[in-house]
Design brief:
This protein has 204 residues and is mainly beta. It folds into 2 domains: 73 residues, Immunoglobulin-like, CATH 2.60.40.1180; 96 residues, no CATH class. The protein has 1 helix and 15 strands, in the order αβββββββββββββββ. Strands 7-8-9-10-11 form a 5-stranded antiparallel sheet, with no helix packed on it. β14 and β15 form a beta hairpin. The longest helix has 18 residues.
Length: 204
């Protein structure tokens, strides 16, 4: 009888401990409303995030508490991939934790270019070149969904640039953005009325 009482007491203590386990601290809440009766396909949506997030130490969970892949953008916004059925409301919460990285956009650095791919398409963009006698074009190859590549070049711009820069602004796993800039001494403006060309200057 005493043994049964001890076991019952231990069981009650365990249940009590489970019931008072604190919920994860909510850092931010994001909600989408569909009020027009239109279903929206899966796409990337962005939310403004107030707290400064620690990448790798913050998780995004849905209404059921399941981790959802997300990306912290360079402007501190949160990128999420989701659909939104007609009349639906979806909510996500940022909490301390870790979210498994999705197998989305991959960026691989090659000797002369960056190869950016997902499960459907791919693109190759040049790395910054110093010898611009043959100036690399912004597209150095395209990949089809079946995995084959076309227009792999090397591809050049018809007019040599004075300077060139390539900057990866976002690097996946949901969004990858690359900024490629060229600088010229002057660029002619062409008119559809066959009028004389007027030079346009951009500071070097």
């Amino acid at each position: 009888m005493i043994q049964h009482r001890i076991l019952f007491l231990i069981g009650a203590l365990l249940i009590g401990c489970q019931s008072i386990t604190p919920s994860p601290k909510i850092l931010a809440t994001f909600t989408l409303h569909e009020d027009f009766g239109v279903s929206h396909p899966e796409q990337i949506v962005y939310f403004d995030a107030t707290p400064k997030l620690e990448v790798g130490k913050t998780a995004l969970v849905d209404e059921a508490g399941n981790p959802v892949p997300f990306q912290v953008m360079s402007d501190h916004r949160i990128a999420v991939r989701t659909d939104l059925p007609a009349g639906a409301v979806k909510t996500w919460r940022l909490v301390p934790g870790q979210t498994p990285a999705p197998s989305g956009v991959q960026t691989v650095e090659k000797p002369d270019y960056y190869e950016i791919t997902n499960d459907r398409v791919g693109i190759r963009v040049p790395k910054t070149a110093t010898n611009l006698t043959n100036t690399p074009a912004p597209i150095q190859g395209l990949r089809f969904q079946d995995g084959t590549w076309t227009a792999t070049g090397p591809n050049y711009i018809s007019r040599a640039a004075k300077a060139m820069s390539v900057e990866i602004i976002e690097r996946g796993p949901l969004v990858t953005r690359v900024k490629i800039a060229y600088t010229y001494d002057k660029a002619p403006l062409h008119s559809a009325l066959n009028s004389p060309n007027f030079p346009m200057y951009r500071p070097a």
